[in-house]
Amino acid sequence: MAQSTVAAERAIEELLSHDRTILALRTEIRGARLKRFLLVSTYFSAPALLLLVFIGNIAAWGRIDLARVNVACIPLLIALLILCAVVRTNSTIDWLDGPVRDEWEAGRAAGKKIDLQLAIERRRLSAASINLPTETRRHIYRESVPGAIEQYRSDGLRYRRVHNFFQSIIIVGSLATSTAASLAETPAPYKWITVGTSFSVGLAAGFTGYFKFRERSFYLQQTADAIEEEYDAVSLKVGRYKGSADDETALLEFTERVETLRNDQRKRQQQLDQPTETPEG
Predict the structure, then answer these.
(1) Nearest to 269 by CA among 261, 277, 281
(2) Whether residue 74 is found in the same domain as residue 168
(3) Domain range enclosing 16
(4) What pTM was computed for the model?
(5) Which alpha helices (H) appear in the chain, and where do they start and end?
(6) Of 35, 185, 174, which is closest to residue 102 (Cα–Cα)?
(7) Last residue of one domain, picked from the residues 131, 152, 176
(8) Could you please report the per-residue DSSP string of 217-271?
(9) pLDDT tens, position by position, 107-120
(10) Which residues pair with 94 in a beta bridge?
(11) What's the CA gap between 226 and 263, in Å, rounded?
(12) Mean pLDDT over residues 261-265, rounded?
């Protein structure tokens, strides 16, 4: 009995070691993507500023004096050029947790993704070769449920923020468009503002209707609340688990119930990913 317990503990530690490697690789991938984004943004910032100033001067030529704007953009342009030169030349300075040249290579994130897939495969093979008791597996599953709940809520919060952002654009843009269009004689610059706000409202409405951010957030939050309710019920032996004879029976019912909720969430996610069908005329 003691030997089987020690073997189970070693197997669990091996799985945890694989999980630690997977988490570390995912963190490195996020960091590499962020650093690559910062590098590309730095390189394109100065040309984008020059192009914006050039287009603005052409559009406002003879109508609006942009001399002050041009003068104000000169120090900003110089600072951006200096930043580009620093990022380009100082490739051996440790910045953002690593050498710039090594951390910002274009293929670094892709290489780490390959390592991540291999690490996941190693964990799968290791888990398949470990013969843990079914009850132990169910206990491990129950303790992993809080992480799943947190993930569902995090994803739901992200979708809710995106939905609120687009809804804010729709509300503010609709009011701005109506106000600008109601003017009797709209000057030329304000006509472009009206066009821009109308385009932003249409774009935000299109994204909101197609990707269904509000529905995704609602279903994720609903699933997280339902799973948390099951987790609290099995921990406190209340609700459907009140009459369970032992922990093994309660864990079996709990595992089945949570898997049903997660499968329902996956089905709803698949339905939301399907394009909206238009009625045939």
Answers:
(1) 261
(2) no
(3) 12-131
(4) 0.65
(5) 2-59, 67-89, 100-103, 108-129, 134-181, 188-211, 213-236, 247-273
(6) 35
(7) 131
(8) HHHHHHHHHHHHHHHHHHHHT-GGGTT-SSHHHHHHHHHHHHHHHHHHHHHHHHH
(9) 666 778 888 888 88
(10) 99
(11) 13
(12) 94
